[in-house]
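Review box. Two proteins, two foldings.
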Amino acid sequence: LPDGLFSGTSDNIVVDIGDNKFTGELPTSFANMSNLVSLIGAKNSFVDSATIEDVCDNTTLLVMDCDACECCEVCCDEDHDGVCDFQLDAHTLLGYD
């Protein structure tokens, strides 16, 4: 993903990049986006810890693969495994369908 993606907008941003076979890291610009409302990035091949902690702090809904997200603690610890073991359809969740 290119760095600077969505950096020119002031509107609330919902990003669904899940299940796209992306690799590498999330763009660093995501960490500076106070208007990033939702980031769905699970089912990709991002590097370990690809999700910057500021993204976790600034995002209301964050769905990432556990190995790519150190700050996704609730869904990635053994105590909550059943809570987060589901298929998320972001379009339905956000009311687009």
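Next protein.
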Amino acid sequence: SITAAMTQLRSLSWKFDKSLSLLRKYLRTNGISPVLSIRILRYVEYKISTKSQDVRESDVQLLTMLSDQLRMELTQETNEPILSHHPFLSHFAIVSRNAIK
């Protein structure tokens, strides 16, 4: 449900905030220079932001609620740009639109 998804999102946000706070505390208590601390924090935030941009189907629990038809159409639209790079499959998709499904 949407409520469960929102709860999970809040939990992930809380875990991220706690992890970042713990990293800051580690850097501070170990006397890491401000310059290096900032570089480390920026790098970690960068890695997290790039990771969060890559959302896999398995990460989206609400997709399990889709009908078989909707799931098939989603799979087709997700994979079609990748498959169309291959010359044979690209030509095959033009000749027979339903075959790619």
